[in-house]
Design goal:
By secondary structure, the protein is an alpha/beta fold. It has two domains: 214 residues, Alpha-Beta Complex (2-enoyl-CoA Hydratase, Chain A, domain 1); 47 residues, no CATH class. The strands form two sheets. Strands 1-2-3-4-6-9 form a six-stranded mixed sheet, sandwiched between helices. Strands 5-7-8 form a three-stranded mixed sheet. Helix 1 links the parallel strand 2 and strand 3. The longest helix is centred in the last third of the chain and has 17 residues.
């Protein structure tokens, strides 16, 4: 699908950048945007030319939450919004039942966890409601220091949706999560970094440079196979015992010893040259 209306997709040097593209509405969320984003992530996740995915917003916002016109329509009609498809459709699989995330993380954004490529959220401006939820499903998050965040749900008569009540306490602790969810207060990228909600907050003019540099590392200096498995190990471990997580790691490490990427990782280190890891297949 190339004729996107609410997003822009560009792939360069093994990095696919997906830009939410409704700048006149601070990239407010629509059902079409959600479907297009999912399609673009699945395509990038299955594309050997892509090793890392960046999600950001056009103009001065990341995503200001659900489009208020759509929320008004929902309030008037009492209609429910779609919950999203739980089947991710990614080609890369791991022969390990304990690492299958499709059943563990259903809902509108579970596919971001199932995607075998690392996903970076570059939060360049207002990030609210469902926009914040989207960012939380990314693997890494970097923000403009002055970007404004809010959970927003309680201020709209809503509840903590799309799994944020599960995600947020695990990222920033229960006390911080309840503060942000119950008060729906605004906070900046600087505070988001201080509480661990984002990996780092930077001046606005340095944000994309830092994100792109991180993406280049992920795209060129580490094994795509390793990234895919480590990402799933971490997410699967949230519902596993230590014993189960350790057993999976032991089996996966033995398999890693037989792969091209392991041999190439050792050889490139000894030969003091950049590694030439294999693409996912």
């Amino acid at each position: 699908m190339s004729d996107y209306q609410d997003i822009i997709v560009q792939t360069e040097e093994r990095v696919t950048t997906i830009t939410l593209n409704r700048p006149d509405r601070l990239n407010a969320w629509t059902a079409r945007m959600g479907e297009e984003l999912r399609t673009a992530v699945v395509c990038a996740g299955n594309d050997p030319a892509t090793r890392c995915i960046i999600i950001t917003g056009a103009g001065r916002g990341f995503c200001a939450g659900a489009d208020m016109e759509l929320l008004e329509d929902t309030a008037n009609k009492g209609a429910s919004r779609p919950r999203g498809n739980a089947s991710p459709e990614f080609a890369f699989t791991i022969d390990e039942p304990g690492l299958d995330l499709s059943a563990a993380y259903p809902g509108q954004f579970g596919y971001l966890y199932a995607c075998p490529k690392p996903v970076i959220a570059a939060i360049n401006g207002p990030c609210a409601g469902i926009g914040l939820v989207l960012a939380l499903y990314a693997d890494l998050r970097f923000a403009d220091q002055t970007a404004k965040f809010t959970t927003a749900f309680a201020a709209r008569g809503l509840i903590a949706e799309h799994g944020i009540a599960w995600l947020l306490p695990r990222l920033i602790g229960e006390a911080n999560a309840l503060d942000l969810l119950l008060t729906a207060r605004k906070f900046t990228g600087t505070e988001a970094a201080a509480m661990g909600l984002v990996n780092k907050a930077l001046p606005g003019d340095a944000l994309m440079e830092h994100v792109q540099a991180t993406a280049r590392v992920l795209a060129n200096e580490v094994s795509p196979r390793s990234l895919a498995i480590i990402k799933r190990q971490v997410r699967a471990a949230l519902s596993q015992s230590f014993r189960k997580s350790l057993a999976i790691a032991d089996r996966q490490m033995e398999q890693s010893f037989t792969t091209f990427d392991f041999k190439e990782g050792v050889r490139s280190f000894i030969e003091r040259r950049p590694p030439a890891f294999e693409d996912l297949s």
